[in-house]
Amino acid sequence: QVQLVEFGGGLVQPGGSLRLSCAASGSISSINGMGWYRQAPGKQRELVAIITSGGNTNYADSVKGRFTISRDNARNTAYLQMNSLKPEDTAVYYCNAVGRTVAGGRFGSWGQGTQVTVSS
After folding, report:
1. Which residues, in sequence order, are CB contacts of 118 under 8 Å at separation 6+?
2. Cα(12)–Cα(19) distance, integer angstroms
3. CA angle 43, 107, 4 (to 5 degrees)
4. Burial readout 69-81 (b: 16 or more C-beta within 10 A, e: otherwise)
5. pLDDT tens by residue, 50-103
6. Which of these, 83, 34, 78, 87, lies nearest to 63 by C-alpha position?
């Protein structure tokens, strides 16, 4: 099994910054992609940003230029640096990872989510 744990959520004023972390652990052989998703009250979960093992990234239009995703492959950890936060960024942020286990099977795992609230 592969577990993901997120850190770094909280309350921040508009224009502020937060950095989220996601650490993967368990029977991991390799992680292909790691991503951040978010879900606001009454809305569907949406993609925020993803990053491949090679460092290629993709962002939702709403966060381009403000958010940066990165990863430390040696530590199986992904980060999301969020700058110039807006009230509409308020949501529960979830980490996702896909890859292969030590046994050779594939996995796709989600973290438990971390609340980000942008409010004055």
Report:
1. 12, 13, 14, 16, 85, 86, 87, 88, 89, 90
2. 11
3. 60
4. bebeeeebbbbbe
5. 999 999 999 999 999 999 999 999 999 999 999 999 999 999 999 999 999 999
6. 83
